[in-house]
Here is the input.
Amino acid sequence: MPTKPHTRRLCLQRAIVLPLAAVLHPAQAAPAKPQVEVWKDPNCGCCEDWVSHLQKSGFAVRAFNDGNTAARKRLGIPDALGSCHTGSVSGYALEGHVPAKDVQRLLREKPQAIGLAVPGMPVGSPGMDGAIYQGRKDPFDVLLVLPGGGTRVFQSYAKGDAMDASHLKRSRF
Here is the structure.
């Protein structure tokens, strides 16, 4: 049965207009996930766990499995603040097991800084919280790394349940 001319025209109009409507209404599009680049050792399980923590918290992650020493130096993180992986997001450096919520706060507040660091590998920090540690959670500080290499406490996690918000001591920078 032949298609009526007005029905064919209506179908063609919809085929053109509907895709354009999606492009012209960006408010309905999902916001882009912040992209974190991570330099790490390919055999490090805690680094993989930290990457998973970021992804579960809404970040897109691109990992480079060739170590982090060169990246740490290039991004301006002092060696004394070193850890097993280094990241970069929106112009900020991330060193070590920085909780995703602190990265989100950094991106919201946009301080004049090189980035954030959790020196060493504190048990209970994201990526260092697996079953092997049997629930142990040590206190640790997330440091704001300032231009010139100095630091201030950005967020402090007390002993006990280090990731439980009821134990947080927020620092002002």
Remarks:
- The chain has one domain: 34-170.
- The domain at 34-170 is CATH 3.40.30.10 (Glutaredoxin).
- The mean pLDDT is 83.
- The radius of gyration is 22 Å.
